[in-house]
């Protein structure tokens, strides 16, 4: 990748890491290099992460408005906490079609950038039809592994880029699963992705800063 707008989105999932420490590292690497690095922590950590100055995303927003929705993740509350974007329909938090649409509407109401996750090219095209800012294709069997989607299954990235482009050329295509090196980021870019979504490579690393500096070298 050569575009400094390329997004490196670090999803902390529910890993037992220090979200603020990783956020501070991501902010420092972004400042030093000009790369776009964002962190998606647990909802309860959004404000603390956003306070570091790093670009902050939610892992999910619920398909609801203000009202009687106990246990929901309200898009407006996520935005109030400092998030500027959100994942929707992550492989580990799948939604029904109507709920993806309603979560997108909620995110748009709160002025959050949106990335809908998908398993394969057909789902990527379907997700693009709902009008998110981006779709992230992630083969579930590669999530959490050591082999990047871009090398294990390059066709799934290329075909997803084409599927999204055919539906709405304004929607970006990110890819994820097993991304942990600058080489992986560069390979994703060569396949047409404009961002990567990753988790374990940073959240479980002994030295997250070294991993992040390597990742941004591929932008
Ligand atoms: O949200 C991130 C993706 O599920 C990828 O996770 P991973 O980098 O641990 O494979």
Keywords:
219 residues; 17% strand; 8-stranded parallel barrel; alpha/beta; single chain; TIM Barrel; binds glyceraldehyde-3-phosphate
Profile the largest sheet: 8 strands, parallel, barrel
Helix share bin: 40-55%
Note the overall shape: globular
Instruction: Just give the CATH class.
Output: Alpha Beta
Query: Any idea how many domains?
Result: 1
Arrangement of strands in the largest sheet: 1-2-3-4-5-6-7-8
Q: Average the pLDDT over all residues and give the rounded result.
A: 96
Question: What does this molecule look like?
Answer:
- This protein has 219 residues and is of the alpha/beta class.
- The protein has one domain: Aldolase class I (TIM Barrel, Alpha-Beta Barrel), CATH 3.20.20.
- The chain has 10 helices and 8 strands.
- The protein has an 8-stranded parallel beta barrel, surrounded by 5 helices.
- Helix 1 (19-33) packs parallel to helix 10 (208-217).
- It is globular and about 45 Å long.
- Bound molecules: glyceraldehyde-3-phosphate (G3H).
- Glyceraldehyde-3-phosphate (G3H) binds next to strand 8 and helix 9.
């Amino acid at each position: 990748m050569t575009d400094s707008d390329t997004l490196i989105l670090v999803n902390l999932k529910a890993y037992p890491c220090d979200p603020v420490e990783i956020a501070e590292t991501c902010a420092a690497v972004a400042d030093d290099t000009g790369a776009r690095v964002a962190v998606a922590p647990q909802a309860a950590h959004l404000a603390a992460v956003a306070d570091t100055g790093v670009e902050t995303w939610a892992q999910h927003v619920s398909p609801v408005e203000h009202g009687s929705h106990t246990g929901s993740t309200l898009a407006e509350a996520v935005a109030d906490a400092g998030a500027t974007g959100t994942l929707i329909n992550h492989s580990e938090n799948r939604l029904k079609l109507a709920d993806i649409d309603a979560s997108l509407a909620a995110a748009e109401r709160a002025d959050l950038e949106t990335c809908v996750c998908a398993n394969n090219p057909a789902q990527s095209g379907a997700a693009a039809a709902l009008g998110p800012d981006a779709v992230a294709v992630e083969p579930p069997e590669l999530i959490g592994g050591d082999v990047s989607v871009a090398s294990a299954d390059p066709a799934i990235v290329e075909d997803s880029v084409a599927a999204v482009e055919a539906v709405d050329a304004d929607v970006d295509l990110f890819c994820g699963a097993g991304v942990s090196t600058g080489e992986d980021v560069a390979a994703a870019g060569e396949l047409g992705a404009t961002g990567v979504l990753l988790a374990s490579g940073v959240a479980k690393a002994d030295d997250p800063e070294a991993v992040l500096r390597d990742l941004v070298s591929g932008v």
